[in-house]
Structures are given as structure tokens and as C-alpha cells.
Design goal:
heterodimer, A: about 260 residues, alpha/beta, Rossmann fold, 2 domains, five-stranded parallel sheet, two-stranded antiparallel ribbon, about 15% strand, elongated, B: about 350 residues, DNA polymerase, domain 1, nine-stranded mixed sheet, two-stranded antiparallel sheet, 13 helices, 13 strands, about 20% strand, double-stranded DNA binding (chain A)
Chain lengths: ~260, ~350
């Protein structure tokens, strides 16, 4: 919405033309100036500037929702009211049903605790047919540390869900639903994220796993503002994917010794 | 006040100056049509200029009647107003105590702290508590929740609303009996219905949203609290021009203060923390820099003290600095008891 064109906002033509003449074309540009600055720049009276800014603001503002309407939408549209059960009783209870849809869930722990194993299991659960309590969809697994093991996954699958995996061809079907990406650099990762955003909905993707975020970022940059900056961008982008497609996203993170503050 | 500071457009100002009008007194006795002829502008435009001038000069001149300066209030009147000011309870007795009753209406309060300390929880709690009906000592208002991070949790809002209703019906047993007879039991649904939720995805939207609030609240007069969770998020990224950032932030702070006064509502801003390098060591401070810290009236910092959560009043013109423990429970923010401690995992 931020880059919405002023010319398409239905402002009175006289003022819209002045904005265009001063090369202020988007809401972002107009709202980055104070009303006083705008008045100087556009050379029109305060009252007209104020009403134009109010008009632009109203259009750019997100739509009103009440918490109740959100809740109703969610109950109506989503399986299990928006949770992917982990099948671990205590954890599911604590999470209110499982890994929530539409938000980012981070898995953190020391090396060897089983973060990747957890991700493999979740991938399987999401790909299972709905009749077995799965999400019956595709999974995109971004494997930054090259730890994904198909053999281990099939092993987990056939031990946990023997009734499915022993049916002829089902192992292939299940494993075929899990798409593994192995980006080797941050820029490659960025590119695949952008592609994913477009194709998520079309391809019936029901879970996105990123294992791990830390590996991608630490490899590239030194500590400092650049890293923070880029990390911030990635996180907000991933969040926006989660919200817009309403799928669960699981990100793993490494455990580091840090300077105690 | 000089002509250069009048809120009129540059070309009009240029015309005024070139026609020899440099001070207010030279303009004050003019009729619109004379001015229109002198400046070769339309009558309407001239009228507009004179209106602006008379507004501007009123600030300079004594009004004559009861007030010496228009729009001013005596400290005595303000005291009365402050005493009648309503507060939104935080549901934690100790925290309410140090805040002087709760989060004050007509003021901007900033709440900051490390991730996981309970900022969003406190935000949701306030969005629910503002709706406590007047006969239970609440405000019976509505809430606006502006979510910039996507961290608003519906499930939590529902739990907190349920717990709030439970507490209210528990309390009513102690209160006068006649309440109960006429009291229709509140539903958690009603609470959710009264939280207006806006999901803001960029800083432009955030600015637009704050501009639009004025209109929105005029249409929904019973809104008593605006919560922004968090004010920081979009301003911490995508900014190369820090001067622009400071300008936008201070503009936003001003508008929020104006809203708080105009509609006598509480504005609650949640802020993140950042590390600041001073004298060779890193220290935790709230984000957005020093000029931002000047623009909030009250500042509350949430922090861990051992295993307990504490709130500390860092800045306030009227309250003494103090700290108080609180806890986050299944029911929301509550008074700390020794039982509700964080389960340490590290």
C-alpha cells in the first residue's frame, strides 16, 4: 500500500495535478514530508494540504478489523483453527493445538538436540493426507546447512506411520511432496524466498521450513549494522509470507555463546 | 510572530511581501477586497489569508476577557482536571501503585523491554481492561490495537478476556447485591468485538494510520486507548536517512500527543531495546535514539530481575521513579506471587 500512486487515489484533480507536477507520485513520498514542507513544495494553502494528506492517509491505512471478526474468519477458514499438531501431547497443549499458522516459529537449541529431526517430522506431518491428520500439502524445506536426509525422513515416516508408508507407492508420494532447496549464499536465499512468495498459493504449499537462519547470515557478513539490516529485511519478508499465505513457518536457530550484557 | 512563519503558501507570502505587507499590524485593518486588489488575487484567497493572519495574531495579543493568552489553562484548573483523570488498570496491584492508578488517559506512555518480557501481553491486557464497565471501576471504552510486528495473538486476547470476566463476576459477589440483578453477563466475544485491530506493514502505512486515527476516533468516540505494538519495528530497518527518520518519528510523537489530549485517551507505545556502546561497554537502552526519548511523557521499562519480571518507571513528570514486580500468567498480567516464576531453561 505504501507505494500506491497518488494519481489513483481519487483526490480532486486540481490538487492531484500539483502533486504530479512536483514529482510526488507515491504515498510514501508524500507522507515522508511534513505538512508544512508539503505546503512549501506544492505552493498551496495549509487547508488544502491538510485535507489532501488526510485523504491519502485514509486510503493507505490498513482496513479496520475487530479482533472478533478476525477470530471468526480464522475459525471458519482453517483446519484445526490454524494449528499443525506436532503429535507431542504436552507441546501441543502448550501451543494451543500445535505450530500456529500465519506466524513464524523459531526452534532453538544446542547442537545435537534434534532441531533438524524435529523439522523432518513436521515436514512429514504436513504432507500426510488429511485423513491421517496431516495438512495434505507440499512442504518447502530450505536446507542451508545441508543436513536434510531423505533416508532418515523415510525412516521416521515408516516407523511413525507404518499404515501409510507400507502402502505401495505412498513413500514416494509423501517424499515427493517435500521440496528441498539448498541455497549456498544469502543472495541465493533471498532470490528463492521471493520466488516462494509467488508460488506458495498456487502449489498448495502448507509448510515452510528454514534450517537454519543462522548458517546463512553468519557466513556472509561480519558482525555489525549491515548484518542487522539484512537480517531485519529477511525476517520481515518471511513474516509477510507467513501472514499472507497463512501457513506455519518454522525457522531453526543455533545456540551461541554471546557476550553477557 | 513574523509573516514568514504564517502557514500560507510560498507564492502568497511572496505576494504579500512584495506588496509591502511585512507585519501583522499592516494586515489587521484591511478588508479582504482591498487585499485582493493589492495582491491581484481572488477575494476568497484574500479572505483565507486574513483568517490565517487573525489566528496567528491572536496568539500575540491579549484576549481581554478571562484568559490572558488564548488556549492557556491555569495550573489550578489543570490540577482539577488531573484529579478527575481516569486510569486503565494493568491488573497488577503493584504496577498500578507505582503508576498512580494505572496507565493515564490523556498521556503518552512508552513501555519497553527485552523480547519475551511481556510487552505484547501488557498491550493486550490494556486493550481488554479498558473495556471493564464503569460500575466495576473501569472505563467501559474501546481499544485500538495497531500491530506492526504481527505479534498480536488472538488466542491470548480471548484467554485474557475470559479471565477478566471471571474476575469481574468474582468481584461482584462482594459488591452491592443490586448490581447483579441488572447485570447482563459480559461475553468474551463482546470484548473482542471492541478491539479494533490494524495490521501495519510499512512505515508509510504507520504514518498514514496515525494521520487517519484522528478521523477514525471522531467516528468511534468511545475509544479510550490506542496501543502501538511496536512503534519501532518499521523504523529500525530500511532507513538510510537517519535525519528523515528522526523527523518522521517526532512528527508522529506530536500527532499522538495531540490525539491523547483531544480525545482524552491513553496512548501506549511499545518499544524494543537495543544495545548502546558507551564508555567501552555495551548497555541496553530503548531503541530509536535520544531524540525519541524526549518525546514520550512517561516511560516504563520492563526487565528481568533474577527470575522475576519487574517494571521500572524511567521517566515521568509526576511520578517518582520506582519499580515493582509483576507476573505474566495464563490469565494475563497479574500481581507477582512467588509461585509464578520463570522456568529457567538455560
Amino acid at each position: 500500500m505504501a507505494n500506491k500512486l497518488i494519481s489513483e487515489m481519487g483526490l480532486p484533480t486540481s490538487i492531484a495535478n500539483i502533486f504530479a507536477a512536483r514529482n510526488i507520485t507515491t504515498a510514501k513520498e508524500a507522507l515522508s514530508l511534513t505538512e508544512f514542507e508539503l505546503m512549501e513544495l506544492l505552493d498551496v494553502g495549509m487547508a488544502r494540504v491538510t485535507s489532501a494528506v488526510a485523504h491519502i492517509s485514509e486510503i493507505v491505512s490498513p482496513p479496520t478489523q475487530t479482533a472478533l471478526s478476525l477470530m471468526e474468519q480464522r475459525v471458519q477458514n482453517e483446519y484445526m483453527a490454524g494449528h499443525l499438531p506436532t503429535r507431542l501431547k504436552g507441546l501441543d497443549e502448550a501451543l494451543g493445538g500445535g505450530i500456529p499458522f500465519g506466524v513464524l516459529t523459531e526452534l532453538v537449541g544446542p547442537p545435537g538436540i534434534g532441531k533438524t529431526q524435529f523439522c523432518l517430522k513436521l515436514s512429514l506431518l504436513a504432507s500426510l493426507p488429511a485423513s491421517y491428520g496431516g495438512l495434505d500439502g507440499r512442504v518447502i524445506y530450505i536446507d542451508a546447512e545441508s543436513k536434510f536426509s531423505s533416508r532418515r525422513m523415510i525412516e521416521i515416516g515408516s516407523k511413525s506411520f507404518p499404515e501409510i508408508f507400507h502402502v505401495e507407492g505412498m513413500a514416494k508420494e509423501m517424499a515427493g511432496r517435500i521440496l528441498v532447496l539448498r541455497p549456498t549464499s544469502l543472495s541465493e536465499f533471498t532470490e528463492s524466498l521471493q520466488q516462494i512468495k509467488i508460488s506458495l498459493l498456487q502449489n498448495h504449499v502448507k509448510l515452510l521450513v528454514i534450517d537454519s537462519m543462522a548458517a546463512l547470515v553468519t557466513g556472509e557478513y561480519d558482525q555489525g549494522p549491515t548484518r542487522q539490516h539484512s537480517l531485519g529485511w529477511h525476517i520481515s519478508f518471511i513474516k509477510s509470507i507467513a501472514e499472507f499465505s497463512r501457513i506455519p513457518i518454522v525457522v531453526t536457530n543455533q545456540w551461541r555463546a554471546g557476550v553477557k550484557l | 510572530m513574523e509573516l514568514a512563519r504564517l502557514p500560507i503558501s510560498a507564492s502568497q507570502r511572496g505576494k504579500l511581501i512584495s506588496a509591502g505587507y511585512t507585519s501583522f499590524s499592516s494586515l489587521s485593518s484591511l478588508s479582504p477586497s482591498t487585499l485582493a486588489q493589492d495582491l491581484k488575487i481572488s477575494d476568497n484567497e484574500a479572505l483565507e489569508i486574513l483568517r490565517v493572519v487573525s489566528q496567528g495574531s491572536r496568539l500575540d495579543k491579549p484576549d481581554g476577557s478571562h484568559a490572558i493568552v488564548n488556549g492557556a489553562q491555569t495550573a489550578w484548573d489543570m490540577l482539577h482536571e488531573e484529579e478527575s483523570l481516569k486510569c486503565i488498570t494493568t491488573s497488577c496491584v503493584d504496577l498500578d501503585d507505582i503508576l498512580g492508578g494505572g496507565i493515564k488517559c490523556k498521556e503518552v506512555t512508552e513501555i519497553g523491554g527485552v523480547p519475551g518480557i511481556g510487552k505484547t501481553q501488557l498491550g493486550i491486557q490494556l486493550a481488554v481492561n479498558v473495556q471493564i464497565p464503569v460500575n466495576y471501576g473501569g472505563l467501559g471504552g474501546k481499544a485500538i490495537y495497531i500491530d506492526t510486528e504481527g505479534s498480536f495473538m488472538l488466542e491470548r486476547a480471548l484467554q485474557i478476556a475470559e479471565a477478566c470476566i471471571e474476575d469481574m463476576s468474582g468481584n461482584s459477589d462482594f459488591l452491592q447485591k443490586d448490581f447483579q440483578s441488572c447485570q447482563v453477563k459480559a461475553q468474551p466475544k463482546d470484548f473482542l468485538q471492541n478491539i479494533f485491530y490494524f495490521r501495519v506493514c510499512s512505515y508509510t502505512e504507520q504514518i498514514a494510520m496515525i494521520n487517519y486515527l484522528d478521523k477514525f476516533i471522531s467516528e468511534h468516540k468511545d475509544v479510550n486507548v490506542v496501543i502501538i505494538d511496536s512503534v519501532t519495528f518499521h523504523f529500525r530497518q530500511d532507513f538510510d536517512d537517519l535525519a528523515l527518520r528522526t523527523r518522521l518519528l517526532s512528527g508522529m510523537a506530536l500527532k499522538l500527543m495531540k490525539l491523547a489530549k483531544k480525545f482524552s485517551l491513553a496512548v501506549v507505545l511499545l518499544n524494543q531495546v537495543t544495545t548502546k556502546h558507551t564508555e567501552g561497554s555495551f548497555q541496553l537502552t530503548l531503541a530509536l535514539g535520544d531524540s525519541w526519548s524526549h518525546s514520550c511523557t512517561n516511560r516504563v521499562i520492563l526487565y528481568w530481575n533474577g527470575d522475576e519480571r519487574y517494571a521500572y518507571i524511567d521517566k515521568s513528570p509526576s511520578l517518582r521513579s520506582a519499580s515493582a514486580p509483576y507476573s505474566v500468567t495464563g490469565k494475563g498480567i497479574r500481581t507477582a506471587t512467588s509461585k509464578c516464576k520463570r522456568i529457567k531453561i538455560m
